[in-house]
Every structure is written in structure tokens, then in C-alpha cells.
């Protein structure tokens, strides 16, 4: 019993250790302490990434008089330009720890002391995180090589080796109407001395959803009313335009969008506020309504046709018999529980063919009148599951389509209909 208790304690300890400590990100840099004139050495980085995945970049500035050639990239895109080494991963290796390396070649005859530091950047929860690579000192001499220097991220702080240039920014936003409920938002960015990581955050109205258009190499995301574009390395050109789409099925009137552009100036994060932009949403009174409460009895738009010839019939018995006959132009009344799919609701009269053409609908649509709304529904089903399947199909064209329920032609909630018909709700 005691052994089982201690075994349980060990298992729990291992679980919490892995939970809190296995995802630590560290970088270790290894290189010899000396380089001979016109000689070369191998610089190695061991990266322990834990459960981090996705985009990442290792960046390092090389002292003048040295050049670099890649050896092991581990799936990264390698570049060496203007004395800056970059390893960029679109997706990090799956291994918990991996090693990359390059050859550092001395192309000058100058003796002296030099240093290498750098930064490892990665994304976690759509936010940028930085790991500083501690400074490694080495010298150029004609003597024999000394033992290697191992530098780990936990031991030293980086030192800045270059002067930070002041960034210049100008950012504007334009909103173009694509259709009655869809808009294209374009962000024109003009920059100088801005490179590396950057993030654009846009706050859009609550009634809108957003989708990707042109991200210019950035990672697009939309959540809780915020559009984000993240760049590990912002486009190199001084002027470029990124864009995205916004769409609504319920908003109307004047709306606005505001935003912030974040970037790095040296080691400090800077923010540039983008002026808000206003735009108007006008559906021409075609407002789609989502019904969530119990609906009252509605009156059919199709008026009943009375038999005017019945007045001319003198025989009372014949008149009574004709009154009992159903009128052929009036739909037969619904019996029992039925389900339909509502695709739209409008305050004013709507031309059905125009609506079907706009949303590319092939289904036959029925007109209903309810509490001052003209409503369009598709299909009539005895089972909720069949109506659900129809709704899912219609949503390929009308995203706001939903199932409605009826009892003998009168609207009731879907929950009531399921209880009366003893059916189960399915998602």
C-alpha cells in the first residue's frame, strides 16, 4: 500500500514537472575562443523549444571582417546580408531540441577581440517572444586555439553592438464597399528603418466578421473583434499595402475601425496609432433577422380567395355544400409538427427572384408575414434532422440561415417542437 502511494506521488510529480517546465525555450551558442587570420570556425546553436511550434527566427549581427556560410539549417531559410545572419522557420522542427550551425570565416588580417550575441524570436498565442543569446567573446590571433566557449541563455545578458536608427512611419486606411454587406479594408504602410517583427491590430465593429485578403507574408487572425497581422520579418520594401475583408448580416448605420501598428526600435516595442476610419452600412432596408424567442402566430401573405359566384346560387343546400369544399388557390393547412429553414426577414416587400439570384439559391422559397416582417423560408420537414441538413446546405450561400418550427402552421420554438414530437436535438 505504501509503495503504491509513493508510486502515485512520483507520477503526479512527473506530470506537474512536465506541465510547468517542459515548455521552456533556451538557446545555447558554442564556438572556439580564437580564430586564426584567414581561418574559419564553426558556430553552433542548440535550441530547446519545448512544445513551441510555428514561425520562428534566429538573428545575429556578425562583426566586420567576417563572412558566414551555412552548414546546418534544420528546415530554416538562411540569409546573410549586411553582416546580419537570419534563420527563418515557417514551422519549427518537431524535435524538442535541435542544432543549427554555420562557418564563420575571417577575411581580414586584423587581430583583436570580438563578440557574438543575437536573439531567438518565436510566436506563442499569436504574441512574439524573444530569447536573448548571451554574448560569446573570441579573438583573432596567430596562436593556437583555446578550448571552446559554451554560452547558454540562462547565464548572461546580451549587449548592444550597433546604434539604433530612428524609425519613420506613415500609415493610412481605406475602406471600399464590395457589396451591400461586405467591405475591403486596405492598410497602406510607408516606413523607414523598420524591419524584423511587426504587428497590425485592427478593432472592427461587433456585428462584423473578418477574413484574409492580402497579408503580405504576415500571419492573419481574427478573434473577439480584433484583426491581427503578425510579421516575424516585415516586408523589406518601404511602401506596401495589406488588406482584409469584413462582412455583416445585421449591422446598419455609421461604423468605424481603429488600429495600432507595433514594431521594434532597437530592443524597445513602439506603437503607432492609426487614425480611425468611418464607413456607412446600408442594406436598402433588407435587414436579416435572427429569431431566438418564441414567435407568435403569423398570417399567410397569400390571401384567401372567396368564391364570388356563390352569391348567385339560390339553392341554399348547394351553397352550403360549396362552402364546405376547399378553395383550390389556398394551400392546404399544415398538420402536426413541421420544420423549415428561414433564410431572410425584411421590413419591406422583397422580390423573391431577386433574393434568390443575389444569394445563388436554387430552392423554392415561401413568403410569410410575422410581426411586421416579411420572411423567406425553404422546405418543410417532419423531422428536425432533415431541416438541420437543409440548413447546413443553405448556409453555403446564406450564412445566417436557421431552423424554424411550426405546430399546425403556427410558429413555436424548436425546443417545444422537439418535445411535442419526441425528437432529439442534433447539432
Task: Describe this protein's structure.
The strands form 5 sheets. This protein has a 6-stranded mixed beta sheet with strand order 2-10-9-4-7-6, with no helix packed on it. A hairpin with a 2-residue loop joins strand 23 and strand 24. The protein is elongated. Residues 13-22, 143-150, 153-162 and 284-331 have low confidence and may be disordered. It folds into 3 domains: 23-152, Sandwich (Immunoglobulin-like); 168-281, Immunoglobulin-like (Sandwich), CATH 2.60.40.740; 299-421, Sporulation related repeat (Alpha-Beta Plaits), CATH 3.30.70.1070. The protein is built from 5 helices and 26 strands. It has 427 residues and is mostly beta strands.
SSE-based structural type: mainly beta
* Overall pLDDT metric: 77
| Beta-strand share of residues | over 45%
The profile of the biggest β sheet is: 6 strands, mixed
Our count of domains comes out at 3
* Annotated CATH homologous superfamily of the largest domain: Immunoglobulins
Q: Could you say what the CATH architecture of the largest domain is? A: Sandwich
Q: Order of strands across the widest beta sheet? A: 2-10-9-4-7-6
Question: Per CATH, what is the topology of the largest domain?
Answer: Immunoglobulin-like
Kindly provide the name of the CATH class of the largest domain.
Mainly Beta
Total strand segments: 26
Amino-to-carboxy terminus distance? 47 Å
Rg calculated over all Cα atoms: 34 Å
Low-confidence stretches: 13-22, 143-150, 153-162, 284-331
Helix content: 10-25%
Number of helices: 5
Shape: elongated
Amino acid at each position: 500500500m505504501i509503495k503504491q502511494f509513493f508510486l502515485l506521488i512520483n507520477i503526479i510529480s512527473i506530470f506537474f514537472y512536465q506541465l510547468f517546465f517542459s515548455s521552456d525555450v533556451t538557446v545555447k551558442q558554442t564556438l572556439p575562443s580564437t580564430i586564426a587570420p584567414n581561418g574559419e570556425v564553426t558556430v553552433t546553436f542548440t535550441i530547446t523549444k519545448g512544445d513551441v511550434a510555428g514561425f520562428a527566427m534566429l538573428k545575429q549581427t556578425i562583426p566586420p571582417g567576417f563572412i558566414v556560410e551555412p552548414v546546418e539549417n534544420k528546415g530554416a531559410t538562411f540569409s546573410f546580408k549586411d553582416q546580419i545572419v537570419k534563420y527563418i522557420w515557417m514551422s519549427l522542427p518537431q524535435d524538442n531540441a535541435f542544432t543549427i550551425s554555420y562557418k564563420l570565416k575571417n577575411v581580414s588580417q586584423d587581430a583583436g577581440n570580438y563578440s557574438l550575441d543575437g536573439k531567438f524570436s518565436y510566436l506563442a498565442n499569436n504574441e512574439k517572444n524573444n530569447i536573448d543569446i548571451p554574448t560569446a567573446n573570441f579573438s583573432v590571433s596567430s596562436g593556437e586555439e583555446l578550448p571552446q566557449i559554451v554560452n547558454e541563455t540562462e547565464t548572461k545578458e546580451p549587449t548592444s553592438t550597433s546604434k539604433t536608427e530612428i524609425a519613420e512611419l506613415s500609415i493610412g486606411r481605406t475602406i471600399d464597399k464590395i457589396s451591400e454587406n461586405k467591405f475591403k479594408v486596405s492598410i497602406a504602410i510607408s516606413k523607414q528603418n523598420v524591419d524584423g517583427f511587426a504587428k497590425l491590430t485592427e478593432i472592427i465593429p461587433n456585428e462584423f466578421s473578418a477574413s484574409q485578403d492580402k497579408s503580405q507574408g504576415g500571419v492573419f487572425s481574427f478573434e473577439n473583434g480584433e484583426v491581427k497581422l503578425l510579421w516575424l520579418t516585415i516586408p523589406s520594401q518601404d511602401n506596401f499595402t495589406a488588406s482584409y475583408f469584413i462582412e455583416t448580416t445585421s449591422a446598419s448605420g455609421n461604423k468605424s475601425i481603429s488600429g495600432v501598428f507595433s514594431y521594434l526600435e532597437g530592443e524597445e516595442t513602439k506603437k503607432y496609432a492609426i487614425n480611425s476610419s468611418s464607413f456607412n452600412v446600408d442594406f436598402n432596408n433588407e435587414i436579416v433577422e435572427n429569431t431566438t424567442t418564441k414567435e407568435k402566430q403569423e398570417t399567410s401573405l397569400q390571401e384567401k380567395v372567396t368564391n364570388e359566384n356563390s352569391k348567385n346560387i339560390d339553392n341554399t343546400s348547394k351553397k352550403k355544400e360549396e362552402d364546405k369544399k376547399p378553395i383550390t388557390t389556398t394551400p392546404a393547412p399544415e398538420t402536426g409538427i413541421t420544420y423549415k429553414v428561414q433564410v431572410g426577414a425584411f421590413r419591406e416587400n422583397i422580390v423573391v427572384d431577386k433574393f434568390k439570384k443575389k444569394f445563388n439559391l436554387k430552392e423554392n422559397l415561401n413568403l410569410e408575414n410575422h410581426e411586421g416582417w416579411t420572411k423567406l423560408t425553404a422546405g418543410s420537414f417532419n423531422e428536425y434532422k432533415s431541416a438541420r441538413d437543409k440548413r447546413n446546405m443553405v448556409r453555403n450561400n446564406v450564412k445566417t440561415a436557421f431552423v424554424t418550427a411550426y405546430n399546425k402552421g403556427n410558429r413555436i420554438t424548436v425546443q417545444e417542437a422537439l418535445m411535442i414530437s419526441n425528437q432529439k436535438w442534433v447539432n
